[in-house]
């Protein structure tokens, strides 16, 4: 039961990642691409946590936390670059 | 449940006509979907792991704090670059020059 549900959610998040990748490639403007990249980070956290649940270990939470932190910092850095043309003034 | 909400967020990211509408999908639906998924993981590890598992609250709190900040920075850079929008987008007259 639980394995089936986890497989279905794997498929859903994979489809969501493909849609994000399409927006990342097509996206007409630069903020669109940053938004798609940020969403891809968040979906990757979901994938890692699901994989950890599937394997039955809780080793993957540190990796998920690291990816969350890196995604936030990179999004803010690229937005600062778009706003001012420089990251640290 | 969480998977459905994450998928809805990404479909919104693809289907919406302009950037200011497109921002709604990931900032709301995907954050809610991630919160649902993390609570599911917390229940799963509390049942099958050893004892009550509270590490997932850390990730969901971090996501709940940082998602509005990154959305705000994105919309600020979009306004700064004057991204063109469709006519149906409301609230354009409230945008001030920075």
UniProtKB/TrEMBL annotation, chain A:
Transmembrane segments: 6-22, 34-53, 59-83
A GO CC annotation given for this chain: plasma membrane
Pfam families noted in UniProt: MrpF_PhaF (PF04066)
Main location: membrane
Molecular function GO labels: sodium:proton antiporter activity
Leader sequence residues: none
Entry's localization field: Cell membrane
KW Transport (keyword) present: yes
Keywords of the record: Antiport, Cell membrane, Ion transport, Membrane, Transmembrane, Transmembrane helix, Transport
Protein topology in the membrane: Multi-pass membrane protein
PANTHER family named in the record: NA(+)/H(+) ANTIPORTER SUBUNIT F1, NA(+)_H(+) ANTIPORTER SUBUNIT F
Family classification: Belongs to the CPA3 antiporters (TC 2.A.63) subunit F family.
Full protein name: Cation:proton antiporter
Species name: Pseudoalteromonas luteoviolacea
UniProtKB/TrEMBL annotation, chain B:
Transmembrane regions: 29-45, 57-75
Keyword Secreted assigned: no
Superkingdom of origin: Bacteria
GO molecular function: sodium:proton antiporter activity
Keyword field: Membrane, Transmembrane, Transmembrane helix
Transmembrane helix keyword on record: yes
Annotated Pfam families: PhaG_MnhG_YufB
Signal peptide stretch: none
InterPro entries noted in UniProt: PhaG_MnhG_YufB (IPR005133)
Protein name: Cation:proton antiporter
